[in-house]
Amino acid sequence: MWVFIIKIIFFDTETSGLDCRDCQIIELAMLTVEDGVITDDYNEFVNIGRPISPRITEITSITNEMLRNDGLDERTIAEDIADRLTPGTLMIAHNCQFDLLFVYFLLKRHFPEEADEIVSNVDWLDTLTVLKDRKEYPHKLIDAVNHYGIEEVHFHREIDDTKALRDVAIALRNERDDLAEYINIFGFNPKYGVGGPRFPFIEYKAQYFTKFMVRDDRILPRM
Fold first, then answer.
1. How far apart are CA 208 and CA 122, in angstroms?
2. Does the residue 115 lie in any domain?
């Protein structure tokens, strides 16, 4: 599996809100794995130049002081992303549509001519979509961690989430070796539709809840 993938990046974001056009990434983590070895663990706050709401601090534990004192400017973050998203890379996130949207609009603000090419030249895998074919609701990352009995997970910063995500991806692969079929396929709840704009390089498929792991011939990519 993934024999054609040069590099895998497990990534996660914290954001100043839910609207990818009006809100921004305030923390970004990227865990790079090459040949099964972690070669880079990137975790940075982003100084977005304006205060975040108390509600976002409550949810993320990120304060305005942390962003002012420890955050990199958004342009630097955009450059760091562009440097890592090279052809042959597989990007993996849990609820990947959300994180991809924020990464894309960040790139679009700083590299308007190159942003579309950067995100379309790599591949994307959504572990949330895979998980929905494997277990009943709920489907958050912590639910996957608990479901697969993953131990020693400390959710303090986003890099911890990416390490947990890597362990979840390994558990999903060990359970059934079909992850490659989900590359560039995102499931969505037909009740709510796709969250945000659709990307032309992603195939979006309606995905319904199940109470059990679906049969091999019933996984979402084959439907």
1. 27
2. yes
Alpha-carbon gap, residue 2 to 179, rounded angstroms: 9
| Boundaries of domain holding 12 | 7-222
Under a CB-based contact definition with an 8 Å cutoff, are residues 198 and 216 in contact? no
- State the residue for tokens 């019933």: 218
φ and ψ of 124, to 5 deg: -135, 135
Neighbours of 209 (CB within 10 A): 10
Q: Would you state the structure tokens that stand for residue 5, as one six-digit string? A: 């993938």
Per-residue pLDDT of 23-50, as tens digits, reads 999 999 999 999 889 999 999 999 999 9
* Dist CA 92 CA 102 (whole Å): 14
Question: For 187-199, what is each residue's pLDDT tens digit?
Answer: 999 999 999 999 9
pTM for the model stands at 0.96
Specify the CATH number for the domain of residue 83: 3.30.420.10
Write down the pLDDT at residue 46.
98
Position 158 scores a pLDDT of 84
On whether residue 19 sits in a domain, the answer given is yes
pLDDT in tens, 64-92: 999 999 999 999 999 999 999 999 999 99
Q: Check: CB of residue 39 under 8 Å from CB of residue 15.
A: no
